[in-house]
């Protein structure tokens, strides 16, 4: 059975950077499932699988097409119950939904402002034109003005992670003694920053930095597959 993961990439097709794709990469590794990565640019997404999605990740698992990283994680737990769970039960699913909303509303917006020009510069010309037009319309400012405002986000970014920092004094992962999908949600956000801007937002002695490095090393070091920007 052929398993395909459609993943957002820059002009360099080996450089996949989407936080949502990284959640799915980690989820598949957690389950020990083999797959082939199909890198796509922003403007190529509408044509994949006959127009099966407007966003990636998109997972083809045999005859099944599943889009959205959270939906993919739920699917993987249902389809492969004999492999390590991504949620550890209904409580884990509920926790993951909270973490997902916190990450996207708090971390993703800050990273967008920090990395927006770096993301633009990773893209090929057609995707650059799309990215500039769509992001400037969505955010109501030029990429350059957004990036200028993003400089203030760098200094305050570590404070946004204080809840995670406090929790890591008690347990090594959000999932407890071992990682679960909520860990991969936050990892995906920080991996997005690492692979696009490479901006240092955490001190080397920060427990969150230690946790992130442990996540990079998980599952045979799959997080290292793309180097830091």
Overview of the structural elements:
The chain is an alpha+beta fold and 229 residues long. The protein has a domain at 3-79: Glutaredoxin. The chain is 55% helix and 8% strand. A 4-stranded mixed β-sheet has the order 2-1-3-4, covered by helices on one side. It starts with a strand and ends in an 8-residue tail after the last helix. The mean pLDDT is 96. Residues 8-84 form the GST N-terminal domain.
Largest beta sheet: what is the strand line-up?
2-1-3-4
Q: Find the structural class using helix and strand composition.
A: alpha+beta
Radius of gyration: 17 Å
Strand portion? 5-15%
CATH topology of the domain at 3-79, which one?
A: Glutaredoxin
Spans where pLDDT lies below 50 across 5 or more residues: none
Percent helix range: 55-70%
H/I helix tally: 8
GO molecular function, one term: maleylacetoacetate isomerase activity
Keywords: Transferase
Protein name: Glutathione S-transferase family protein
Pfam families: GST_C_7, GST_N_2
């Amino acid at each position: 059975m052929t398993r395909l993961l459609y993943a957002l990439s820059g002009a360099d097709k080996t450089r996949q950077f989407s936080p949502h794709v990284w959640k799915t990469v980690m989820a598949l590794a957690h389950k020990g499932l083999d797959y082939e990565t199909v890198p796509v640019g922003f403007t190529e997404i509408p044509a994949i699988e006959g127009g099966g999605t407007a966003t990636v990740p998109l997972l083809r698992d045999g005859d099944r097409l599943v889009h959205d990283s959270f939906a993919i994680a739920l699917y993987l737990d249902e389809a492969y119950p004999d492999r390590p769970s991504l949620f550890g039960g209904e409580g884990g699913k509920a926790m993951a939904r909270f973490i997902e909303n916190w990450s996207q509303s708090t971390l993703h917006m800050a990273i967008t402002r920090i990395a927006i020009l770096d993301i633009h510069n990773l893209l090929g010309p057609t995707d650059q034109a799309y990215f500039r037009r769509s992001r400037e319309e969505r955010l109501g400012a030029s990429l350059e003005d957004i990036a200028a405002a993003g400089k203030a986000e760098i200094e305050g970014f570590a404070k946004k992670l204080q809840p995670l920092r406090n929790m890591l004094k008690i347990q090594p992962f959000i999932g407890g003694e071992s990682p679960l999908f909520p860990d991969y949600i936050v990892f995906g956000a920080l991996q997005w920053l690492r692979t696009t801007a490479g901006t240092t937002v955490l001190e080397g002695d920060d427990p969150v930095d230690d946790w992130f490095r442990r996540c990079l090393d998980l599952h045979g070091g799959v997080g290292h597959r793309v180097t830091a920007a």
